[in-house]
Give the backbone structure.
Amino acid sequence: MKIIRNIFVFFFVMTPITCLVALYGCQQIPTVESIERISDQALLKEIVDRDVKDGTITVMQKIAAAKHIKDQQFLRRRVLSSKDKYPQLLKIYIVENLLDQDNLSVVAGYRYLIADDLIKAALNGIEDPVLLEKVIDNLFDKPSVYMGECFSFRLDVITGRYVWVIDRLLEVVRGKQEVQALALKSEYPEVRLAATKLIDDEDVLREVALKDNHHEVSKAATERLTNQAYLAEIISGKACSSGLAFEKLTDPNHLFALVMSGSYFNANGFEDRSRLASVISKITDVGLLKKIVMQNESSNARMYALGQIEDQNTLIKIALEDPDLPVKLTAIRKITDDGTLIKIAKSQPGGKSWAWEDEQIAINAYVAVQNKSKLVTYINESKDYFQQRAAFSAIKNRQLLEDLAANSFSDYVRNAAQLRLKSADKDKYLDSLGYAQALQAVGFCRHIYHGIDPDKIADISLGYFKKGGRVVGHRVMTELFYKFTTKTLAEHYYNYGGPELSEIANDWAQRNGYMFFVKGAVISR
């Protein structure tokens, strides 16, 4: 019994005491080997908690003690401690030997006062994808308390750690199905983005591109797609990456279907004309372009398609039959046969039925005529004032203008030609004409002559009205009013222009915040 008692005292009492004496009561520092023989957990914890600055312990001895500590919570708390007595080397060793996955995830997701090496070591020990996603939560949980200079939350550092977590997550999740699940279902866009970049399955990429509301994720999926039908679907579905899908879409049939559907180009009721033009510019098949011209409801689509068509029969058909004026004019400008252009211009009704749209068609047709001398002949032969004026608008050649000024049978054609030729002294030339002739000349060449002083028109109009003139006609006087409107001109029209012109002047005054006093009919604010 005595022998057994002595053995018990030696191993369970004397050995710990001997170590403690060696640690705290003697100058000699215990060896690593002696510490590794200690089994008392409390004593091992005490050794780990000693400060190396006291000179009673070394880092390697603290590591030797930590090696045998079983309390994982104790070890985790020491890793996360900011105290100097827990050196970095000790913390890294502890992290590398932590067995508990939950404790590793806490270390990996800890944002404050902890070195990157510890984060990486903790991440390397985690094998559970669920815990890795919890780490992401911890990293981006916003701090609720500002702790002064001792605490600095650096988003760039956290973002770097975030990348490490994602990389580790993709290392752990190696299966194809698991990676696809992350791309489709992870709540973190960065995780979805990283997973998407590893996927080659076009069906999965299509689903990500269509459904993911995060632009970078949708874009990454679209970048990896090559299937033209899927790209067209992404565009039609107005996904985040529809712009990139459009850049990659080259199949003419899909482009044509996109143009004909029209939905991609309409947002909030407004047509995206630049994008529509870009799509049509990628279509080179003339047959498809003609279908757009003949069948598409959008006048813009028809115009853009016409820009790529040279077939004269198609252009003539559109010029004569399309219901929209801009489309007609686009076609007219591309017709090359002078006879056809003159025929189109002459087909517009003249006289009292002449409308602004008719005039625009005629003017553009005459402008497109290559041999302008044909227009001089037509102007001299025609008896329709409006057709003459439309043809005259297309003539800029000085020799042809001189021919008209010298030889035209019409006074207002001669005067208009002289006015255009005498641009340097136009006011002097207008003064030399009678009131009616001056107004006719201005009205005749109004489309391309913009240098006339509006006050000069007001003076001529007043003289014309006071002479009781009605030769020029209501139509010319109305056009002149809207072309050269001034307060003075409105007064003259109201006072002397007769019921119809007076009403026009009064309407203009009301729209522009003026009013007429009955006596003297003077305009005032």
Remarks:
- Residues 1-70 form one domain.
- Strands lie at 266-267, 270-271, 515-516, 523-524.
